[in-house]
Design goal:
By secondary structure, the protein is an alpha/beta fold. The protein has one domain: Protocatechuate 4,5-dioxygenase, Chain B, CATH 3.40.830.10. Helix content is 34%, strand content 23%. The strands form two sheets. Strands 6-3-8-2-9-1-11-10 form an eight-stranded mixed β-sheet, sandwiched between helices. It has a three-stranded mixed β-sheet with strand order 5-4-7. Helix 1 (14-21) crosses helix 4 (125-135) and helix 5 (160-175) runs parallel beside helix 8. The longest helix is centred in the first third of the chain and has 17 residues, at 31-47. It is globular. It starts with a strand and ends with a strand. The protein binds fe (ii) ion (FE2). Fe (ii) ion (FE2) binds at residues 12, 57, 59, 126, 189, 240. Keywords: Dioxygenase, Oxidoreductase.
């Protein structure tokens, strides 16, 4: 059977993709950011996951105000990097795992989660930057990916509780897939940042680290953080952190922390990264 072996949380800042693509990951500015991912790059080489369920949000690349799915799952065979205004990133196409994705879609929908099924879409920095952070610049990504897109761009966005419960349902779906696969779930986005308005540039080291502490804990208090707290404490774009709760909800009650990293600033955001293993 398929096994959900680990969860990874990571920011997906577009500037980090630029740093990888332009070979600047070791310079004075980016060096300390990428140093915090070195442990994970070595760990991933040893873990050799077959598939990542990659929770991310689309930034008006595949979706726009014409259609705003709350939760969408990619069931296609392949996804191309999106053109976000400067041409598509020169990274490999992302290979899907259609059989697992359709299985998860069926399991989730019969579990009362009304997923939008996407068979064709381009994927933007929300999905490709975390792949670059964890796997560098290979000719071909070493894993297949089931993209899981969440609306955190247009209110109403899903509650933390709903995201956590979706993670629990994804874990049930993966555990009932008959093929022997090593599956990880990644939650991406955040941490504190606000891109516009009078509070543009807001960062909150203390709150971000409290959130990481909550993810490491055995209780599920993080699922009850209201939207207004993300907005107030972490800026308008900090709401992306609800996507980390899908990852955390999938790992069960107890987790073991394998790695954790936090750095500010990166572009106009705070960088957070955590690697967790189910410990029930
Ligand atoms: Fe984002």
């Amino acid at each position: 059977m398929a096994r959900l072996t680990a969860g990874v949380g990571s920011s997906h800042v577009p500037l980090l993709g630029v740093a990888v693509d332009q070979g600047k990951t070791g310079d004075d500015y980016f060096g300390p950011i990428f140093a915090g991912y070195e442990w994970t790059r070595e760990w991933e080489k040893a873990e050799k996951p077959d598939v990542i369920v990659l929770v991310y949000n689309d930034h008006a690349s595949a979706f726009d105000m014409k259609i705003v799915p709350t939760f969408a799952i990619g069931c296609g065979e392949r996804y191309k990097p999106a053109d976000e205004g400067w041409g598509p990133r020169k990274v490999p196409d992302v290979e899907g795992h259609a059989d697992l994705a359709w299985h998860i879609a069926q399991s989730l929908i019969l579990d009362d989660f009304d997923m939008t099924i996407i068979n064709e879409m381009d994927v933007d920095h929300g999905l490709t930057v975390p792949l670059s952070m964890m796997f560098g610049s290979p000719d071909k990504w070493p894993v297949k990916v089931v993209p899981l897109a969440v609306n955190v761009v247009t209110y109403p966005v899903p509650s933390g509780n709903r995201c956590w419960a979706l993670g629990e349902a994804i874990a049930r779906a993966v555990a009932s897939f008959p093929e022997d696969l090593n599956v990880q779930i990644w939650g991406t986005g955040g941490m504190s940042h606000q891109l516009q308005g009078p509070r543009a540039g807001l960062l909150n080291r203390e709150w971000d680290n409290k959130f990481l502490d909550m993810l490491e804990s055995d209780d599920d208090a993080a699922r009850w953080i209201p939207h207004i707290e993300y907005l107030r404490e972490t800026g308008s774009e900090g709401i992306e952190m609800v996507m980390w709760l899908i990852m955390r909800g999938a790992l069960g009650k107890k987790v073991k922390t394998l790695h954790r990293h936090y750095h500010i600033p990166c572009s106009n955001t705070a960088i957070g990264h955590i690697v967790l293993e189910p410990a029930d």
